[in-house]
Amino acid sequence: MPERPRADPGSDEEAVRECLAGRTEAFDGLVRKYQDRILTTIRRIVGHREDARDLAQEVFLRAFSRLATFRDGARFSTWLYAIALNQARSELRRRKARKNRPPVSLDARGRDGERTPEPADAADPPGEELGRRELHRLALRAIERLPAAAREVVVLRDMQGLSYEEIAEITGVPVGTVRSRLHRAREALRRELSPLVMGTEREGKA
Amino acid sequence: MSRAGERELLSALLDGELPPEEEARLRELLAVRPDLREELRELEAVVGIVRDIPGETAPEGFRAAVMARLPAARRRPRVFLLVPLAAAATLLLAVYLAGRSRRGTTPPAAPLEVASADGTRAPAAEEKDLGMAGGRVPEESEARPAKGKAAPPARAEAKAARTREDGNRGWREGRVPAAKQGEGGAVQTALPPVAPRAATVLRYRLRGISPDAAAGVVLAELGRLRSEGGECRSRPTAPGQAAGERLAREEVEQDARGEPVALHLRLTVRELAYLRGILGEKEGAVLLVSRGGPAKARAGEGGPPAPATPPAGSARRRPERMPVVIRFLANR
Questions:
Q1: Out of B47, B147, B156, B315, which could bridge B87 as a Cys pair, Cβ 3.0 to 4.6 Å?
Q2: What domain count does chain B have?
């Protein structure tokens, strides 16, 4: 019987093995490493901050309870992102089914439409016509209006820096589909944002 | 090349995801096409803004909250270490059944002893309701290859060990392992082969919940149920955990994309009665079909269980587990 491949010491996959061997504390390191990334991914897909936090916790709990199904040779990060994406999709489906919640809001508005301040939402320094924060807010609004599948690839590529291959694995579509979805999403963003961006750049250069 | 095609290439160029030859062609185009260069610049600026958006930071206590909630889930991987034990228990039952069926040409008509989760015997009326009497064929059933049911007891441990060693790689591809397929009737045994028991089948239509989430709920609840019920007492060693890993795979039937489509479990009557309500009550799933006698079980609803009468020679008998298939139909 062939020897099972050993994961590199200190790698995610080794931490998974330790968890499966009963050393639960190894999971702590994995949560620490991925908590911000998973939280950001879910927040940008589903919107609401509180929901995103709850869902992110569920992602880690689910991942832990399903560690035994993690396959040798797979990347833990990709596997974890896939769980996160499933959670986010489920949440969007639940909302759609209930239809008693407002649509996804990626900016700082709460589910009741009330603004909940966050650091990135603070006012831009005076004197800046269209500061970075305002641009971020407008970009988030534009991303929010994208179809869910397009939003997923933008988040995974431009916010998480994943490769097309990883995104294909996570979303379950071919690499070519990832490329075209990303292209369409960016085209939509460009239509909305480029007048602002290029205007700002030109003003900046003047 | 169409303009849409060119733009798609621009997007991939920004990501460094173009094959070298395509990139070279595109750069030649860019050298002679100011409009394309302008588009690339705009795209780059927009992508730059998106990439510049600060990420979320997990609130203080996030990690601690996750870790604090782990203990309930912690034992889940271990649950499946019970599967070889359940297989061994089933084997004993199979030997008992075979012994009975050899006495006559018809299958045994007497009901089996169905022990409930607390080790007591279920009342006879319930046994009848469960359809556990020999000879009953469910309307719709899913029979899985018997796990060495026809093998003599001395081979039980060897079989369980082999299960641990070989795992069940086939489920990775969503198919029944070839080795298992061949074992149903091919195993040479001293006893006549026993037909694999038909499984109880629950079919759920999912609403607003993914198959992944539904499977997670069932497995987590099962893990909790067993750990709280004191049935999860096996002490796993490191190799044991590896076995648990593979056995867990066996329990989850996945489609080509790795989405769970069904869970193949071995449950006690009480576990089944509890789990079949979970998805509908707590999550977004509607039970469409419940076929196979035991699914009609209402363990715990018929008043207190009958006084325990341990069968002779099996004072510490474990609750019998029956094969159960929980199938998910995604609502897409």
A1: B147
A2: 2
Residue B61 domain-assigned (yes or no): no
3-class DSSP state of B261? strand
| B63 lies in some domain | no
**pLDDT given at position A77:** 95
Its domain, for residue B129, covers 77-329
User: Which chain B residues are Cβ-neighbours of A164 within 8 angstroms?
Assistant: 12, 15, 17
Cβ A119–B54 below 8 Å, yes or no? yes
Residue A23 at interface with chain B, using a CB cutoff of 8 Å: no
A35-86 pLDDT tens trace = 999 999 999 999 888 889 999 999 999 999 888 888 878 899 999 999 999 9
- Selected residue of A3, A6, A20 to mutate for chain B interface (largest B Cβ count, 10 A): A20
Q: Is residue B177 located within the same domain as residue B260?
A: yes
- pTM value? 0.51
Cβ–Cβ contact A191 with B under 8 A: no
Phi-psi domain of A2 (left: phi exceeds 0; alpha: psi -120 through 50; beta: other) = beta
CA distances from B190 to B149, B157, B194 (A): 12, 17, 12
- Judge whether residue B288 has pLDDT over 50: yes
pLDDT for B109 beyond 50? no
With CA atoms as reference, report the closest residue to B26 among B51, B43, B49, B48: B43
The answer to whether B297 touches B172, Cβ cutoff 8 Å, is no
Q: Note whether A189 contacts B: Cβ–Cβ < 8 A.
A: yes
Which of the four pLDDT bands, split at 50, 70 and 90, describes residue B323? confident
Does the complex come out with an ipTM higher than 0.85? no
Q: Is A197 within 8 Å of B45 when comparing Cβ atoms?
A: yes
Higher pLDDT, A1 or B222: B222
Q: Are residues B47 and B121 in the same domain?
A: no
Mean pLDDT of B88-102: 58
Closest Cβ opposite residue A194 in set B45, B208, B249: B45
H-only helix segments in chain A = 12-20, 25-46, 49-65, 76-98, 132-144, 148-154, 164-171, 175-205
Do B22 and B127 share a structural domain? Answer: no
Chain A nearest CA to B80, separation (Å): 10
Domain co-membership, B42 together with B141? no
Question: CB pairs below 8 Å between A and B: how many?
Answer: 177
Min Cα–Cα distance to chain B from A139, Å: 7
**Residue B69 resides in a domain:** no
Instruction: Clarify whether residues B290 and B157 are in a common domain.
Output: yes
pLDDT in tens, A135-176: 899 999 999 999 999 999 999 999 999 999 999 999 999 999
Chain A, 30-69: which have a CB under 8 Å from a chain B CB? 31-32, 35-37, 39-40, 43, 49, 52-53, 56-57, 60-62, 64-69
- Write down all domains in chain A, each with its CATH number in brackets: 7-111 (1.10.1740.10), 123-206 (1.10.10.10)
Cα gap A196→B1, rounded to integer Å = 29
Q: Are residues B180 and B219 in the same domain?
A: yes
Considering only CA atoms, which of B273, B206, B51 is closest in space to residue A154?
B51
The whole-chain average pLDDT of chain B stands at 61
